[in-house]
User: Which sequence fits this backbone?
């Protein structure tokens, strides 16, 4: 039996508790969509264009339809819902008369077996008239480039709204002839020309980060089934079941009430499973065949036709005084969005112009369409790319001025309350604290000795750090907390647990209600049963859903105490919940158990109301969160190979609700960040075809490439987060590209402005330097 | 399409199993689609990610690269046969306690690679552990807790107990 | 699928099905090709049941069965010493442990990818391919075996049964290195296998074989000649490394540029020669 506890001793917030789904996951029993089946299940395959840009002259499906075991073959002609001006990728279910990226689906097959469906694909004949493709975003921006979107298609800014919630003015209209510029934004303050004129040092570089893939291990998968009444059930691997429902309803033109999305265990998303992708076509195949249909993307399809992160090109020019005073910043950001609009422009401007205190800035951003797969979010969208530019630049400036690089950053780092580029004040954050903390790390203090130990059988050694962060997403949400008849507590949300958030939400409920965590169960409901909630994205689950759960638990506690107050003839203020019992403070023997309250709420003829805490908050205050990362490295000057000896992540979690889970996020995010820094890039040839469509050539890092990732959690409480918590998912993917570029510069004297920092780039730069 | 199936037997998780397979079916597909063992995952289908790792005669292999018929008369062990119904294997237990699994998709493969490593090298160094699971891509964890858990499980098993 | 139990049965199966038949050993090259629809064989002949192909014997040289795996090369104690160490190193670099348990030497050679890792050390050891066919056995020097990207001298009715490595003598050392951005699970940007044999402090035989810099693995013959008959000083090794670059005819692709590949040939030739020399001298390097 548990010992007596006051509410303060409840096992809840702040404890490192392993996720309760651990045993199911280590035994292989957890079911992902591809593991599920259904009576009469059919398998879907999509025929995809090999051309980046082509007109479809004709499609002949006769032979495919005749193959035994094939149950349906669909082309755009079979889907009257399709619009020429598809506002999003999800709406472009199958290409109508033009394909706009290599990998775009043009036909779909459902068959008894996956192998039959695949064979049917080979029997579909598509005649293309190949058109010139816009592959390089800088060329695609120029007048006369081959057009990507249909004339008059609107920019899609929903991603920006979901993720960053930073308001920014739209830029002036793009030059009329540059057909592929789909969005622009501009912010300006002060007199930039004057600032440069008065500067002692003007530095200009162009930084480039290629398209990268989220690399989740589970490819996209969905199982769709209709009932006779016309209701659709989707078992989906998604980061947001309500969003999936809305998008699919919109594409199919049916009411949301007709669709039930059941979020199945998601084998990784990182932003890539926010938007609907293969759900609409799978639903259409299921409708055409009147059978359940399962579609699982292959890895090759994922890499060729998933929704990667945009390529980001930033030209950055800054002026400073000899004493290190910042004078002016000018930046042009180009986000390559692929064939459909959907990037986040504002984040880049905020970090470029207002992470540090630039008295004058002029920042322009353009979203450019190309004939490549359209992009989506990837953990802190556009932040790693932007921080790569601004932090590399700050480091270069400090070194050029012979100033301490950390002191230089700290001196100019904006503080809470100071204005961001959009003139909104920076919310409370721990940027200064994490920077200070990492500068105290022995690896930073000993960086000179490490560098001196270069040579003598060792390579070139160096240390680098960088600071980056995330502004924090916001989205309305809701949660309920009910007291069960046996006195246990059940929390219900619709929030998909992609990062271990459910255990942390349960911890919040435990502490807020006053009951041990092992008495709290949390469920992610499907879209029919769960209250509305947003995406598991933007580092906002704990911050927003955590708040909802906190409020719902407090609400349930209040109801519980009110019921007990009547029974005990005491006032609510004098009551507390101790060890599963409501007692009058200081009188432990006089009390009523939660079980009895719970039971009365569900008893025949009982007059006691069931306890049901409800909360459905909306939010306006963001909680930015920062991470600093430090790399101690060694470079083989001949091969350019970088060996990562140590890697440290310092991160402000506000309040670590579950430190074990926070560490896991920090380590995983750091390694994705290191992948962007060192090895990852989707590489396209001149015709727009992906040259590395496998995980052998699209190189995410393996265990052998990495040291242990050291984690240091800093807690600068957010005034608005539950128990002071901030989002923790995104900050750790941000700093490494800059930290590694800085470390490589420290080791070799070579400054690289394009990632990945491959051995080839490093070795050839060293050789060129002589 | 040549769909004539061939019969074969194999020892699967210590039980003799007879199964009909198609000529070019992979062991992974047979396990998942025919035998209902969905613990091994398909993350790439071309041997690049390790999510489908099983033991073939005690050795870790990518089951997506093995034709089912190549496993005839051989011993196959999947994640379903690593522990028992009642108790977790020490590696599984360590993974749970260290909070290793996040999305969990890579975990069955990692555990099978780690178990094969420990069978061969009962007291691996951290470096040996890292190379032992280098064929298993994980996108969530950054591997650190994995390495710690494997090292701890290795240390917990008495020498020579395997 | 045909499941022969001996080389003879295998030859029979090939004779019966001709060009429609495709051999499978470890399947690590074949299955991805099947998956990506690069290949549609009529019938697959499985070598995994042919025990003789799995033997590795070391007795005045080596006889390596075609179905010996990369993992076996990596872990075989008989290859852990100086002369054959390059072979063990090449096996250890293939794919990941899950791939190495399947990947065979014969598959690596017959797949004939320019980047194949196990070929350069075998070339450097002057290995000979032993081929079985309907007219019996024939032997072809490995250097003549591969004729182009993914093509070999094998007829549709033949299979590779063994690699025969002549005794390199007491003072011989080998080394293999490759460059890849990742440490495991990667394909060579450049690979170099070097073998040096010494007598009285002089190099009597030098072999340098390069991977991933030409349509087939190639010998750097000028570099080899520059070393033979010489005492191997660091300067001579550096000169040979420079000469080795001349043998390379690389292309630029997603794994590396012409410029970087040429650069790597020099670096890796220097390094493998230096290590091979130390091993020939009995060093444990
Ligand atoms: C993830 C991954 C990583 C890899 N990494 C590497 C690497 O690092 N280095 C490297 O060199 N390779 C690598 N490979 C390629 C592959 O593993 C090797 O080439 C391997 O040695 C092939 O052997 P196998 O037995 O699997 O060949 P199989 O796939 O069975 O056969 C390959 C080809 O050879 C033919 N063949 C096989 N055996 C014979 C025989 N005895 N006689 C005639 N023909 C025969 C087959 O018909 C087929 O055409 C990798 C592959 C994968 C999937």
Assistant:
């Amino acid at each position: 039996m548990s010992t007596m506890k006051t509410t303060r001793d409840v096992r809840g917030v702040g404890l490192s508790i392993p996720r309760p789904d651990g045993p199911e996951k280590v035994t292989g029993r957890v079911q992902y969509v591809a593991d599920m089946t259904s009576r009469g299940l059919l398998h879907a395959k999509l025929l995809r264009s090999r051309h980046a840009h082509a007109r479809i002259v004709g499609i002949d499906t006769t032979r495919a339809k005749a193959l035994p075991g094939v149950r349906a073959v669909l082309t755009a002609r079979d889907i009257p819902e399709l619009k020429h001006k598809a506002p999003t990728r999800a709406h472009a279910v199958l290409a109508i008369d033009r394909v706009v990226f290599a990998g775009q689906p043009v036909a779909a097959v459902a068959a008894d077996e996956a192998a039959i469906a695949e064979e049917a694909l080979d029997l579909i004949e598509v005649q293309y008239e190949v058109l010139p493709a816009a592959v390089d975003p800088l060329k695609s921006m120029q007048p006369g480039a081959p057009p990507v979107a249909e004339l008059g298609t609107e920019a899609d800014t929903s991603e920006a709204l979901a993720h960053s919630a930073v308001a920014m003015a739209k830029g002036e209209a793009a030059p009329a002839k540059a057909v592929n510029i789909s969005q622009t934004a501009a912010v300006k303050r002060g007199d930039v020309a004057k600032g440069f004129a008065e500067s002692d040092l003007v530095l200009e570089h162009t930084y480039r980060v290629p398209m990268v893939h989220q690399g989740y291990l589970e490819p996209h998968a969905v199982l769709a089934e209709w009932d006779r009444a016309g209701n659709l059930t989707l078992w989906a691997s998604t980061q947001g079941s309500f969003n999936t429902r809305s998008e699919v309803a919109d594409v199919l033109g049916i009411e949301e009430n007709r669709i039930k999305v059941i979020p199945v265990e998601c084998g990784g998303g990182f932003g890539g499973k926010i938007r609907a992708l293969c759900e609409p076509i799978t639903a259409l195949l299921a409708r055409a065949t009147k059978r359940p249909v399962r579609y699982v993307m292959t890895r090759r399809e994922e890499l060729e036709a998933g929704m990667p992160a945009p390529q980001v090109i930033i030209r950055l020019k800054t002026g400073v005084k000899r004493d290190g005073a910042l004078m002016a910043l000018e930046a042009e950001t180009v986000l390559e969005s692929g064939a459909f609009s959907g990037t986040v422009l504002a984040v880049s401007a905020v970090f470029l112009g207002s992470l540090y205190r630039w008295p004058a800035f002029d920042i322009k951003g353009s979203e450019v369409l190309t004939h490549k797969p359209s992009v989506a979010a990837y953990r802190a969208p556009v932040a790693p790319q932007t921080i790569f530019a601004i932090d590399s630049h700050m480091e270069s400036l400090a070194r050029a001025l012979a100033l301490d690089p950390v002191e230089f950053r700290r001196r100019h780092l904006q503080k809470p309350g100071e204005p961001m580029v959009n003139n909104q004040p920076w919310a409370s954050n721990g940027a200064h604290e994490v920077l200070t903390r990492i500068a105290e790390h022995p690896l930073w203090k000993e960086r000179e000795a490490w560098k001196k130990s270069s040579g003598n059988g060792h390579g070139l050694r160096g240390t680098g750090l960088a600071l980056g962060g995330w502004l924090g997403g916001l989205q309305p949400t809701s949660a309920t907390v009910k007291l069960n008849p046996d006195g246990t507590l059940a929390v219900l949300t619709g929030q998909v647990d992609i990062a271990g958030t459910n255990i942390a939400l349960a911890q919040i409920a435990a502490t807020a209600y006053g009951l041990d965590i092992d008495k709290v169960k949390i469920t992610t409901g499907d879209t029919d049963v769960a209250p509305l909630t947003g995406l598991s994205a933007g580092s906002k689950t704990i911050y927003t859903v955590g708040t909802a759960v906190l409020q719902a638990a407090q609400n349930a506690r209040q109801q519980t105490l009110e019921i007990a107050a009547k029974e005990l003839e005491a006032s609510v203020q004098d009551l507390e919940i101790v060890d599963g019992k409501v007692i009058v403070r200081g009188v432990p023997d006089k009390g009523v158990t939660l079980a009895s309250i719970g039971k009365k709420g569900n008893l025949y003829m009982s007059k006691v109301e069931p306890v049901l805490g409800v909360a459905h908050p909306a939010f306006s205050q963001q909680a930015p969160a920062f991470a600093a990362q430090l790399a101690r490295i060694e470079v083989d000057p001949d091969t350019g190979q970088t060996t990562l000896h140590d890697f440290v992540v310092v991160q402000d979690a506000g309040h670590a609700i579950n430190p074990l889970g926070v560490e896991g996020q920090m380590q995983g995010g750091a390694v994705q960040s290191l992948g962007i820094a060192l090895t990852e890039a989707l590489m396209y040839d001149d015709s727009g075809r992906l040259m590395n469509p496998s995980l052998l050539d699209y190189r995410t890092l393996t265990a052998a490439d990495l040291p242990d990732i050291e984690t240091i959690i800093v807690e600068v409480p957010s005034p608005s987060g539950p128990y002071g918590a901030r989002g923790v998912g995104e900050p750790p993917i941000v700093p490494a590209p800059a930290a590694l570029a800085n470390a490589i510069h420290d080791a070799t004297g070579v400054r690289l402005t394009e990632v990945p920092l491959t051995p080839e780039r490093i070795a050839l730069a060293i050789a060129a330097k002589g | 399409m040549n769909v004539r199936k061939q019969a074969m037997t194999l020892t699967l998780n210590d039980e003799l199993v007879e199964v009909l397979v198609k000529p070019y079916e992979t062991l992974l597909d047979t396990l998942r689609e025919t035998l209902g063992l969905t613990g091994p995952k398909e993350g790439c289908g071309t041997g690049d990610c390790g999510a489908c790792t099983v033991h073939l005669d005690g050795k870790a292999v990518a089951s997506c690269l093995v034709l089912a018929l190549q496993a005839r008369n051989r011993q196959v062990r999947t994640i379903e046969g690593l522990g028992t119904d009642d108790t977790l294997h020490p590696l599984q237990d360590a993974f749970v306690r260290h909070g290793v699994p996040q999305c969990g998709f890579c975990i069955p493969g990692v555990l099978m690679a780690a178990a094969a490593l420990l069978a061969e090298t009962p007291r691996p160094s951290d470096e040996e552990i890292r190379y032992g699971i280098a064929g298993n891509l994980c996108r969530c964890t950054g591997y650190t807790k994995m390495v710690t858990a494997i090292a701890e499980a290795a240390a917990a098993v008495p020498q020579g107990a395997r | 699928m045909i499941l022969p139990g001996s080389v003879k049965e295998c030859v029979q199966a090939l004779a019966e099905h001709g060009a429609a038949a495709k051999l499978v050993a470890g399947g690590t090259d074949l299955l991805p090709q099947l998956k990506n629809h690069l290949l549609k064989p009529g019938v697959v002949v499985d070598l995994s049941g042919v025990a003789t192909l799995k033997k590795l014997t070391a007795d005045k040289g080596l006889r390596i069965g075609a179905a010996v795996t990369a993992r076996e090369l990596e872990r075989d104690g008989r290859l852990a010493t100086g002369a054959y160490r390059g072979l063990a190193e090449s096996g250890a670099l293939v794919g990941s442990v899950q791939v190495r348990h399947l990947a065979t030497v014969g598959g690596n050679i017959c797949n004939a990818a320019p980047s194949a890792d196990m070929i350069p050390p075998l070339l450097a050891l002057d290995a000979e391919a032993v081929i079985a066919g309907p007219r019996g056995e024939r032997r072809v020097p490995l250097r003549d075996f591969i004729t182009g990207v993914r093509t070999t001298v094998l007829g549709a009715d033949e299979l590779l049964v063994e690699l025969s490595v002549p005794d390199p003598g007491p003072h011989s050392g080998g080394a293999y290195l490759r460059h890849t951005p990742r440490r495991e699970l990667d394909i060579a940007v450049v690979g170099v296998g070097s073998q040096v044999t010494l007598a009285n402090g002089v190099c009597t035989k030098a072999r340098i074989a390069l991977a991933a810099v030409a349509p087939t693995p190639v010998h750097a013959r000028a570099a080899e000649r520059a070393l033979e008959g010489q005492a191997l000083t660091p300067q001579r090794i550096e000169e040979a490394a420079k000469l080795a670059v001349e043998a390379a005819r690389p292309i630029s692709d997603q794994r590396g540029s012409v410029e970087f590949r040429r650069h790597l040939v020099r670096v890796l030739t220097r390094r493998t020669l230096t290590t091979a020399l130390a091993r020939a001298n009995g060093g444990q390097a």
